[in-house]
Design a protein that fits this description.
InterPro entries: Anthracycline_SecMetBiosynth, Glyas_Bleomycin-R_OHBP_Dase, Glyas_Fos-R_dOase_dom, VOC_core. Pfam families: Glyoxalase. It comes from Pseudonocardia bannensis. This is VOC family protein. By secondary structure, the chain is an alpha+beta fold. 18% of the residues lie in helices and 41% in strands. It folds into 2 domains: 113 residues, 2,3-Dihydroxybiphenyl 1,2-Dioxygenase, domain 1 (Roll); 113 residues, 2,3-Dihydroxybiphenyl 1,2-Dioxygenase, domain 1. The chain has 4 helices and 16 strands. The strands form 2 sheets. It has an 8-stranded mixed β-sheet, with helices on one face. Strand 14 and strand 15 form a beta hairpin. Helix 1 runs antiparallel to helix 4. The radius of gyration is 17 Å and the shape is globular. The chain starts with 12 loop residues before the first strand and ends in a 5-residue tail after the last strand. The model has no long low-confidence stretch (mean pLDDT 94).
């Protein structure tokens, strides 16, 4: 099981979390769908729950901060200096929504919008590196940016995080992988068939042991299927929503493997 105990290189997707109106209901949904157990961080942290795989941090689920706040997964990029990254964000057409702020004993963070309106976070590790398990069932295994103006977003993320890009054979012309220090870290492209009116966003993919079983469990738990389990050149995947409307994908081996 690939694990991490030291801070992620700057620019690397290093954490993912969600704010929901009912944390208990969310843990009861995601636990069996992804295979997570949970650690409640306590009252001082608003009962933010750390989703764990084999005791390692994989994601977070916390309460919404204000009535009516929509639920959506937020992807965080690693930074060695959140305050310097905040300046790069605003200097290059992005908007800082919250922070930079300290999370006592854990790190320093902000939440921002890129110039196309996609929300993302930035995490500077101190006590908590972020994701401690990756590229395994029960962990974040991929992330896409779905963007109304991919070219503008790519210029922004290059300026802020130093990303370089590589085309993907067979993918839409505007879709590239993005690289951190030469290592592929995710994908970035157009809206890829999203419903009309969907804003630009980052989309997390969670690894699961059995995609079809996770889809069935999600439906029983009050989720919805946006794309049924499908074999692709990149593995078997499905796109789902949780009971609060947050979109996420599950990913595993193709059915013939």
């Amino acid at each position: 099981m690939p694990t991490r105990e030291t801070p992620w290189p700057a620019g690397t997707p290093c954490w993912v979390d969600i704010a929901v109106p009912d944390v208990k209901a969310a843990t009861e949904f995601y636990g069996p769908v992804i295979g997570w157990s949970f650690f409640d961080s306590g009252e001082d942290f608003g009962h933010f729950n750390i989703a764990q795989t084999d005791g390692k941090a994989a994601a977070g689920i916390g309460p919404i901060m204000q009535e009516g706040q929509p639920s959506a997964w937020t992807l965080y990029m690693a930074s060695d200096d959140v305050d310097a990254t905040a300046k790069l964000i605003t200097d290059n057409g992005g908007t800082v929504l919250a922070g930079p702020m300290d999370i006592a004993g854990n790190g320093r963070m902000l939440v921002a919008l890129d110039p196309t309106g996609a929300a993302f976070g930035v995490w500077q590790a101190m006590g908590q590196v972020g994701i401690e398990v990756y590229n395994e069932p029960g962990s974040l295994v991929w992330e896409d940016a779905r963007l109304h103006d991919p070219a503008a977003a790519k210029r922004f993320y290059s300026a802020v995080f130093g990303y370089t890009y590589q085309p993907v054979e067979g993918a839409p012309e505007d879709y590239d992988t993005f690289c951190v220090n030469g290592e592929i870290a995710g994908g970035m492209g157009g809206m890829m068939g999203a419903a009309e009116g969907t804003p630009s966003h980052w989309a997390p993919y969670f690894g699961v042991a059995d995609v079809d079983a996770s889809v069935a469990t999600a439906e029983r738990g009050g989720g919805f299927v946006l794309m049924p389990a499908t074999d692709t050149p990149f593995g078997r995947m499905a796109i789902l929503t949780d009971p609060f409307g947050a979109v996420f994908s599950v990913h595993g081996q193709n059915s013939d493997q």
